[in-house]
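With this grant's support, the team has encoded backbone shapes as discrete tokens. A representative record is reproduced below.
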Amino acid sequence: MTEQIAHSSAAFYNAIARYYDAENEHKLDDLPFYSSLAADRGDPILDIGCGTGRVTLHLAAEGYRVHGLDHARAMLERAERKLRGRADLRDFATFFHGDALTFDFAERYKLILLPYNAFMHFHTAQAQRRLLTRLAACLAADGLIVFDLPNAAQMLSAHNDGALTLERTFFEPESGNLVMQQSVSTFDRVEQMQHITWIYDEISVDGTLRRTVAPLTLRYVFPAELDLLLELCGLVRLERMGNYEGAPFDENSPNLIVLATHRKA
């Protein structure tokens, strides 16, 4: 089951890798938060689900040694292409291909990041516990694990009508083509799952339409549930926040941001 989860998520990101940077070019709001954590804790840093290197390369540019891990080769190819163009970062950023549930982590990290909903790709309690146990084993004694998740209360109030939604339009930089990104979502509130079908309609200058259809499943996590998972894996929550500025978490918070470390004996 855990292998199926990893492969399904990797298949999604391999399918949409060419669009990822263009659709997320404005996703900058979390970067100062990670910079402040790195300034406090130092390196080495591990970025789980690093994708095309958005967070990894940002922290490397600030002089921290960062390892980025991802299971989608197409995303990593783009990250490595960026790194090849930045000779100043080559001593700081390293990318690895692999599944976080089986990858052999060779260092103890001061900071382990699961940014931008990365933990939602682990759909079962078994997979979540396996991941957290492995991350606890490679976390430095004074290190932090950082979770950035959406507030699961949003799932309870979301419409579950399967309507087609236009998410955004953007230009794919390599071709210059207009892309219309749409989605269809359904929620399984019992299993806390969101099943999304992403639809990318790429329109060339001559009007030709190329459609990419990519399904993705994400699992929401409630605050108390995450606290229990941490406890079961030898970890403990240090802090819970509702946004990147450190506001207290409540039912209206956009994010569930949790900082965790080793539980003291």
